Amino acid sequence: MSVSQNPFVHQCRVTYADCTVGNHIYYGRYLEILETARGELFRAAGATFLQLQDSGNIFPVVEAHLHYKAPARYDDTLIIEIRVTAAERVRLNFAYRITNQNDTLILEGKTLHVCTSLDEKLKRLPEELVAALAPYARSE
Asked: What is the pTM of this model?
């Protein structure tokens, strides 16, 4: 999976709490890292998760795929690239690429989401959100 040339980019530093005794990020923590980066993407697009929730929209993950390429270790700087791969009807999907400060590929992945109301009924993506995320959409 390749990510387009102009993704949204978020950086974070690996904390000691993220790591196992073997000094690599515990595999499940990557989903939290991607969630944080995705939250920053939404913020950059003009709406926080809480603002979207307050307007009656949530985006639960219905599928996640992660491909671990190399370990990230304590104090590494991670560069997370995100592209929107689908924003249509009720679907909102993302592709991710994580590298470290040495440009080593750490992880590639994707998450698939649906838009629902707070009572978990499927609903159409807000048009203003689709428009705000358009600059981060993958161009095929």
From this structure: 0.92
